[in-house]
Specification:
This protein has 293 residues and is of the alpha/beta class. It has a single domain, classed as 3-Layer(aba) Sandwich (Rossmann fold). The protein is 37% helix and 19% strand. It is built from 10 helices and 8 strands. The N and C termini lie far apart (36 Å).
């Protein structure tokens, strides 16, 4: 994975304008053998500019609903880059998966992208029945910056009194680099996601010091009443310790929480044997918490 990332230039993304990198990603050939799902709906959420891609399992339903948020450091990636992850999660969990194309930084800095995710998830819950979904069996999920989005949405909706059944985040961003978590130093270079690159992502997301506290979801004061959580981290990842710290804080507030650290580098969900095992773990967690028979 490290060799592939270096070959593709993924470790040097901060050396190019984000728009240029996004255009190169759009030119990637499509997956020749995508996992088959029952139905896919591409649409823009009414009264917004937020595109979503909705994956519906085969079968009669109704199905639980999950909002999924892609990674990419708040700056990159899209519905297409995470299409296969969402397909796999749909099939293996038996859930409707709504992938959200939230607005990206630096053109749309914090809190624009996270608030798009909140708006999209509210819409999914309110219109679940129209999709053959279950409004009272909803969850959020995401990887990396998308993990941040999932945990952010869970905090916001819980504060509004909207109940989620579960939250899943793979190697999530949870704290601004000013916190100096040890894994930022231990894994600062030589792996897929460097500390320099992650710092660049954060500086694009928000460069205003007055927002660092608010934008760092780990620093939220109250974690009570949040939904059951599955948090995964990658051992050779600058984000490892802040992901674990988030899981520990959830546990300290009595939230039912599972934490798994994988002996891998950043960005493995659904890739290779270890990634398949992680995908199975996430799918089983969603099935259990969303009470899928």
């Amino acid at each position: 994975m490290i060799a592939f990332a270096e070959k593709m230039g993924y470790t040097k993304l901060n050396q190019f304008p984000p728009a240029q990198t996004r255009e190169l990603m759009r030119q990637e050939p499509p997956n020749p053998n995508p996992t088959s799902v029952g139905k896919i709906i591409n649409m823009v959420i009414p009264e917004t500019t937020i595109p979503v891609r909705i994956y519906i399992p085969a079968g009669e339903g109704p199905f639980p609903v999950v909002s999924y948020f892609h990674g990419g450091g708040f700056v990159l990636m899209s519905l297409d880059t995470h299409d296969e992850i969402c397909r796999q999660l749909c099939v293996k969990s038996g859930c409707i998966i709504m992938s959200v194309d939230y607005r990206l930084a630096p053109e749309n800095p914090y809190p624009t992208g996270p608030e798009d995710c909140v708006v999209a998830t509210r819409w999914l819950i309110r219109h679940a029945e129209q999709l053959n979904g279950l409004a009272d069996s909803a969850a959020v999920a995401g990887d990396s910056a998308g993990g941040f989005m999932a945990l952010y949405v869970a905090q916001k909706l819980t504060a509004e009194g909207i109940s989620l059944r579960a939250q899943f985040a793979a190697y999530p961003v949870t704290d601004h680099y000013s916190a100096h978590h040890l894994s930022w130093e231990e894994n600062k270079s030589g792996y897929t996601l460097t500390a320099e690159l992650m710092k660049w992502f954060w500086d694009n997301f928000t460069s205003n010091p007055s927002t660092f506290q608010e934008a760092s979801i780990l620093r939220a004061a109250d974690f009570s009443h949040l939904p059951p959580a599955l948090i995964m981290t990658a051992n050779y990842d600058p984000l490892r310790d802040e992901g674990k710290a988030y899981a520990d804080k959830l546990k300290s507030f009595g939230v039912d929480t599972i934490y798994r650290n994988y002996e891998n580098v950043h960005g493995f969900l659904g890739l290779g044997k270890m990634g398949e095992e992680a995908m199975d773990t996430a799918s089983n967690f969603l099935q259990e918490k969303l009470q899928i028979q």
